[in-house]
Amino acid sequence: MLSIKHIVKQYAAHRALDDVSLEIEKGKIFGLLGPNGAGKTSLIRIITQITAPDSGEVIFNGQRLNSDHISQIGYLPEERGLYKKMEIGEQVLYLARLKGLSTAEATRRVKYWFEKLEMGSWWNKKVEDLSKGMQQKVQFVATVLHNPELIILDEPFSGFDPVNADIIKNEILELNKQGATFIFSTHRMESVEELCDNIALIHRSKKILDGSVAEIKEQYRNNTYWVEYQGAYNTDLSADLFEVVQREEVKGKTILKVLLKEGRTANQLLAALLPVVAIHRLDEVIPTMNDIFIDQVKQKN
Amino acid sequence: MNKILLIIQREYLSRVKKKSFIIMTFLTPLIFAGFYALAIYFSIQGVKGTFNKIAVVNDNKTLTEKLTSKQNYGYTYVNKSLTAMKAELKKTDFDYILYLPEFPLDQPHGIQLLGTKQAGMALNNKVSDEIENLIRTQKLKENGISQQDLDKLISNVDIDTKKINENGQDEDSSAGASTILAFTSGVLMFLFIMMYGIQVMRGVIEEKTNRIIEVMISSVKPFQLMMGKILGIALVGLTQFILWIVLTISISTVVMKVFVDKKDIQQLTASTTVKGGKASVKEGTVQPKMENNAGEAIKADSPLKTIQKSMASLDVTKIITVFIFFFISGYLFYSSLYAAIGSAVDNETETQQFMMPVMLPLFLGYMLSLSVITNDPYGNMAFWLSMIPFTSPIAMMVRLPYGVPNWQLALSMALLVIGFIGTVWVASRIYRVGILMYGKKASFKEMIKWFTYKN
Predict the structure, then answer these.
(1) Which of A129-133, B34-38, B279-283, B416-420 has the lowest mean pLDDT?
(2) Domains of chain B: which residue ranges?
(3) How far from B233 is each of A116, B83, B335, CA to CA, in Å?
(4) What pTM does this model have?
(5) What is the tens place of the pLDDT at every residue in B141-176?
(6) Among B212, B219, B438, beta carbon nearest to A83
(7) How many whole angstroms separate alpha carbon B308 and alpha carbon B178?
């Protein structure tokens, strides 16, 4: 639904985005990853039409991005806030009406969401009387209230306690099920693995990696396994089968991290061990997004 | 467009609903009305309150002319010695004793004004003036000039300032009234532009520090947000201004009706039309009667009369209309600059370095307008100050009560409109970049760079 084509954005001496292209599919949750200052926010600001690119274009549902699309996008910026002196209900209504909802429709939806997230009693409270987590909840409601097709969340879970973070996560999944597409910018890799279908990694203004989470992880598998067993096994005997990366002895058990040699399989590893020791566990080591992220960023540095 | 209206609505309502706004709006006219009522009260008190009865002990045989009673004091010639009179003073209802000893007309020495209380400067001067007059009259008479000729000599001079308008007809005007009005509207204009301009700046900073700006900017264009805020606050200013006028007038009317009774006002109005003259108060008459003076009423300046006269002679509707125009345009001119400043900084303490260059022309315009223009409302300086958009809102308001040719008024308005379109344009270019900049210490150089950014 969203194609980003060869975007370049230059700020004076600093190039924030350098020929970045992305494809975001409808109904998917897309993770936009990258270290601080990589250009994620610049890209998001272009999608939300806060700024315009120097060159390149953004296609939204087959049309070049224009101001008609504002009402179809919901954006929760990382730097977010509310009018401190304004009452919550009034404030969310105001933000919804700015997105083009009629007063009646906006009121109906605000009531629905407040009920759903147990915020009903907050209507007449002022923002300054709410805790930070409560403010975040209000902000989330304001972001999704106008039922946007594309929802962009920049660090959505910062400031939430685990309980509320879970509530928000479930709301995201539910909205996603109803067809909303998400762009999800974050540093928290565990939430990326939990939520995202696809990711792109941006580093130093360039896209260095993109694809589906499953594929990327597949790419990063390198035949490493955890083996846990009881008994004595001379690992030198099978030097042509695997290489020990890490070795630990815990309560009479041996835990090995082994890297299989080219062409060898886990079955062969088991066959070698089975006659000698009692096996408790065999796990493939699948790199976490965190590992991939760090690995990629370090490589490029 | 709809979005701008929404923003205007929010900016307006959130301010008008504030307690501080309501208090300011209702308290200020009360204070104005209070001053007005106080001024009237005191001028009435001044008229009826202090009547001094003076007993004249005349030991002078040379001076045959007699003193005549006046509005606030009456002379009564008594046939008693000074010592006797002194002893009796407390028992009589006289306030003072005027002692005229024997003296040659060339050397009037030894005159005394005695009383249980010390006679004020004003009374002392008046009495001494009158004695001087008396001596002069007597001398003239002794030199063979008849009373008739003397009467002819007396003439009251009262300058009526009139201005000839374009049609060659003269209009009533009053230098004093114009000055008061010029002063008031100049000060009001200065205060309004500054107060509401700073509110715009605060509003912008608030959105930045609250970090709501990015949420807003993803829904509306920066220009819409800036103009919505500026216009919303302009409406707040207009509301306050109109309420002040309406409330001041209605409160004053009520106060006048309740606290000041009609007779007093009539008396006040009448008294202000009386000036010395040849009041036909006979010796011994204690309280001068109004009817005695009415026949010889001559116009004179009293503060109240001046204000009343000015209200009649000056076109107040025109002044208010022009004020509203110059307030809105001048406010737009300055508040967009304030908005640009607000967008460039992270908090209010950082605004200092930018405030100076914006405040300076406004302040200069204010100072020069009130000093130079009130002295020479038609001079070159006045003309240029009222043309340059930086100073014209104040300068033109100060010039207006003295009369400004229509072409100058139109030119000044046109220049100001061009001016504010210019500042709004410049400001919106700085604003759109500035609002998204955090932690960067803004400088003028930086702002110029922002200005030149392509979208």
Answers:
(1) B279-283
(2) 2-40+174-261+308-452, 51-153
(3) 36, 75, 10
(4) 0.73
(5) 888 888 788 777 777 676 666 666 556 665 555 566
(6) B212
(7) 12
Name the CA dihedral angle for A94, A98, A100, A105, rounded to a multiple of 10 degrees: -10
In chain A, the domains with their CATH numbers are: 2-218 (3.40.50.300), 222-285 (3.30.70)
- Fold classification of B51-153 (topology level): D-Maltodextrin-Binding Protein; domain 2 (3.40.190)
Backbone φ and ψ for B172, nearest 5 degrees, come out as -70, 140
ipTM of the complex: 0.80
Are B303 and B268 within 8 A, CB to CB?
no
User: DSSP per residue over B95-164, as a string?
Assistant: SEEEEE----TT-----EEEESSPPPHHHHHHHHHHHHHHHHHHHHHHTT--HHHHHHH--------EEE
What single string gives the DSSP state of each residue in B332-345? HHHHHHHHHHHHH-
Residues of B in contact with A153 (CB under 8 A): none
State pLDDT tens for residues A49-99. Answer: 888 888 999 999 999 998 888 889 999 988 788 888 889 999 999 999 998
Backbone angles phi, psi at B99, to 5 degrees: -105, 120
Residue contacts between A and B (CB atoms, under 8 Å):
61
CB-CB contact of A253 with A158 (8 Å): no
Closest-CA distance, A140 to chain B, in angstroms, reads 11
Secondary structure of residue A204 in the 3-state scheme: coil
Measured over the CA atoms of residue B24, residue B26, residue B28 and residue B34, the dihedral's sign is negative
Q: What mean pLDDT, rounded, does chain A reach? A: 88
Task: Please indicate whether, in this complex, the C-beta atoms of A98 and B219 are within 8 angstroms of each other.
Answer: yes
Q: How far is CA B403 from CA B175, B304, B313, B367, B374, in A?
A: 11, 22, 11, 20, 12
Which of A67, A38, A16 has its CA nearest to residue A186? A38
CA angle A120, A121, A127 (to 5 degrees): 105
